Each structure stands twice: as structure tokens, then as C-alpha cells.
Amino acid sequence: MIGLGESTEQIHATLRDLKDAGVDFLTIGQYLQPTRNHAMVKKYYTPEEFLGLKTTALSLGFAHVESGPLVRSSYHAQNALQ
């Protein structure tokens, strides 16, 4: 989940760390504040920004990436195995 105040470089560093740790399947989604008692959203990412993150992740060698504002961990999971 992104949108809690992280920088683009921090996201890219995390992608590299995940790939170095052997992760092949990745989902990137927008954090949404569930209640007023939870952390506030610092940034809403655009669909174009999510596409850029997907492109970056794929260029790092991830086998499957789902990236978008409403993506969650099981988002289109059945497609990852095809």
C-alpha cells in the first residue's frame, strides 16, 4: 500500500529489496484511511503513476505485477498463474 508519505525513491528501493529477497508476484495499491482513527492518506497516486510503478517493477524482473488505486493483495490472483 502506498500513499502514507513515502517518496518515489523509497518505493523504488522497496521494490529492489523485494526482488532481492526473491519476491516474484507483487501488488501495489492505494492506502485508504478506513476510519478517522487510522493514519491519514498523505498522497493519492494517479493511474499513470501506478502504471509507472508497474513498469519499474517489471523491469526489475518481477514475474507478475498488479498496480492500481484499488489493487489489493488478492487482486486478480487467478491471472498470476496463467
Describe the structure.
The protein has one domain. The chain has helices at 8-20, 47-59, 77-80; strands at residues 25-29, 64-68. It has a two-stranded parallel sheet with strand order 1-2. By secondary structure, it is an alpha+beta fold. The chain is globular. It contains three helices and two strands, in the order H-E-H-E-H.
Topology readout:
Elements: H1 8-20, E1 25-29, H2 47-59, E2 64-68, H3 77-80
Parallel strand pairs: 1-2
How many individual domains? 1
Helix/sheet category: alpha+beta
Q: How much of the sequence is in beta strands?
A: 5-15%
**Major sheet: arrangement of strands:** 1-2
Query: What does the largest sheet look like?
Result: 2 strands, parallel
Question: What sort of overall outline do the alpha carbons produce when their principal axes are compared?
Answer: globular
Short descriptors:
82 residues; alpha+beta; two-stranded parallel ribbon; 3 helices; globular
In short:
This protein has helices at residues 8-20, 47-59, 77-80; strands at residues 25-29, 64-68. It has 82 residues and is α+β, with helices and mostly antiparallel strands.
